[in-house]
Automatic annotation (TrEMBL):
Keywords: RNA-binding. It comes from Gossypium mustelinum. Residues 1-20 are annotated as: Disordered. GO terms for biological process: enzyme-directed rRNA pseudouridine synthesis. It comes from the Eukaryota. One of its GO terms (molecular function) is pseudouridine synthase activity. PANTHER family: MITOCHONDRIAL RNA PSEUDOURIDINE SYNTHASE, PSEUDOURIDYLATE SYNTHASE RPUSD2. InterPro entries: PsdUridine_synth_cat_dom_sf (IPR020103), PsdUridine_synth_RluA-like_CS (IPR006224), PsdUridine_synth_RsuA/RluA (IPR006145), RluA_PseudoU_synthase (IPR050188). It catalyses: a uridine in RNA = a pseudouridine in RNA. It holds the Pfam family PseudoU_synth_2. CDD domains: PseudoU_synth_ScRIB2 (cd02557). This is Pseudouridine synthase RsuA/RluA-like domain-containing protein. Residues 134-269 form the Pseudouridine synthase RsuA/RluA-like domain.
Amino acid sequence: MKRDRDEAEEEGNEERNKRKMEIVWQTPAHPAQKQDYVFHNGKRHVRPYYFEFVSHVNKRWEGKTIVDLFAQEFRGRSRDYYVSAVKCGRIQVDGENIPVSYIVKRCQKISHFLHMHEPPVMACDVEVLQNEPDVLTVCKPASVPVHPCGQYRKNTVLGILQAEYGLAPLYPIHRLDRLVSGLLIMAKNPAKADSFRQHIEAGLVQKQYVAKVVGVFLDAEVGISNGDTTLKGKAACTKFTRISTNGIHSIVLCEPVTGRTHQIRVHLQCTGHPIANDMLYLSDDVVNRSTLGTTADRAAALSGGSPETSCESHKEEYKYCSEDFSIDPMCTHCPNLAPNGVLLAVNVE
């Protein structure tokens, strides 16, 4: 009987070691692949993957225990999770396993190995408008960030262009907010990117935005500066011109003279005509911004609205197989997502 138990335990250890060996830890150097994406109900999903987040100990972190550091600086997970992650080697210092009481030192490399679940975006294409030897011009759809940030790595304009068109490396010379759609210009080499940046800094490039706002906007050019708004400390100026109105909403041309965070959104709110689906700056919505932070995503989530709109996709649909969804025991997202069986799929080809 004891031998049977020993053999079963040995087989269990072998199976666990086999699963451990099958894990491929990705880094920012790993390119996005076409098979990484899953399309479902008009949204682009990314299959969960294992990723190594790397950071280096700065002055504020120095002298803290590894668990205190993560619990205080990265509050998206519980302290108990970080204790477990250190004990099982999912959090390492300079490539080595360390105890939970380990005190970090300046400039050390900290690795956090995670099972990544990227948020979905709309399934619209990133349309290539012009592909020149040094410059690429695309139409960025709403809901897709330009480059890796936060929880997004592959569900980005750069990731999609690399996976679907093999276009890499690319150097964005300007950016559009995640929720904004529009023309995006990227250089194909650092020299061209620097040339574009010099033109922008010299004021030789002008940007124009078109916004749908609440109410009937004034039928005249309107100029707003930060003296009339809450954008204190930095000069900010935007020119607005009404294009059309239906009596309920107006289409407005927005020309930022300067470029500050949320400048157009704040200035439009100042005119009494906020952007129609901007849950953070809609004057009719009572939103406690002190608890929401500064992002439209958080405001929309807590107010019950959505900053995104639906988008029909011509992409081939997928059949989902919930039994193929492999749950990572250390992942804080897997238990909630697994019952839906949404993120792993078999392509119908």
